[in-house]
Amino acid sequence: MIKLAIDAMGGDFAPEAIVKGVNLAIAAYPDIELVLYGDEQEIKKYLQVNERVRIVHAPKKIDMGEEDPIGEIRRNRDTSLVMAFQAVKDKEVDGAVTAGPTQGTIAAAHLVIRRIKGMKRVALCPTLPDIGGKPRLLLDVGANVELRSEHIVQLAEYATIYLQETAQIKKPLVGLLNIGSEPGKGREVDKETFQLLSQNQNIHFFGNVEPKELFFTDCDILITDGFTGNMVMKTSEGVAKMIGKYLKDEIKKSFSAKIGYLFMRKVFKNFKKAMNPDEIGGSNLFGVDGVVVKAHGASSDYAFSKAINQARLTVQGNVIEKMKAIIGDDTSDS
Questions:
Q1: pTM value?
Q2: Which domains are assigned to the chain?
Q3: Residue 237 — very low, low, confident or very high, per pLDDT cuts 50/70/90?
C-alpha cells in the first residue's frame, strides 16, 4: 500500500474540495491509504467513511496570504501542513499532497522534510498543458530565483528519472530554455549549463529551445532557473486566457460567427480541456527527501484527486531512491 499525508486545510476551497477529492482518489486507486490532517469535525462533513482513510485532528492552517511563511512554520508546528510534512519526515507516510500556499509549501519542505542529501536545490515542476502532441515538464517555476549551472543539471537528472518511472518514457529529451536555439546563446549560466548538459550521461540533451517552441518542441523536459520559468509559465497562462476571451467576444459579434461556433464546438471544448489545470493536478516539488505534490490553490475535488495520483505514481516509481543512487556519495552543498 502507498500511504500519503493530505493537508486537508490547505487551499481556497478547503476542506470541502480537498476531502471530496480524497473520496474520488480512494475510489479510483485501491493501492492507497490516506491520512488527513485537519479539523476533524469539518472533514467528517464531507468524508465518505473508508477503512483506508484516517483523520489526524489539526485545525490550525497556514493562510494563503501569509507574509512570513518561514516564521509561521517555525512558530506553529501544529498546523495541518507542517504536521503532514512531519509525517513524511518521520517516514510514517510515503509522501504528502497540499493545495496550501506555494511559498509555505516550499518553506515547510525545506524546514521539515529537508533536501535529499547531496541535492543542491529543489524545484517546483508543473506539467504543461497537452498541446502539440504531448505533455511536458517545466522547471524550475519559482522555488529558486537564481540557479547555477550545476543546480540546473542536477534538476534535469531528477526530472529525467521522474518521467522514466512515472510516464514510462525511456529516454526523455531535455531542452534548455534560451533566447536562441544555437549553441553559445544566452547568459553565461546558460552557456555553462549547455556544456554540462551535453556531457551528462544521465540526460538525453536536445539543445536550446526558444520559448516560442514551448508547446511544439520534441522535448519532454524544459529546464531553466526559477525566475525565467515562472515568467514563461505565467505568460503562457495569460496568453491562453486572452485567446479564450478573444474568441468568446468575437463569436458574440455576429450571427455567422455563432453558427460557426456550433460546428466548431467540439474543437473549443477540446482546447478548454487541454488548457484546464484540473487535468494536471499540481506541481511536483523535486529535491526534498519525500514525495511532495503542490496542488493548485483553487483545486476542485477532481483536480485534487489528480494531484493525489501524481504523488502515488512518484512513490510507485521509487523516484527519490533512484535519484539518490545518481547523487551517490557526493554530499557537497553550495
A1: 0.89
A2: 1-119+287-334 (3.40.718.10), 127-277 (3.40.718.10)
A3: confident
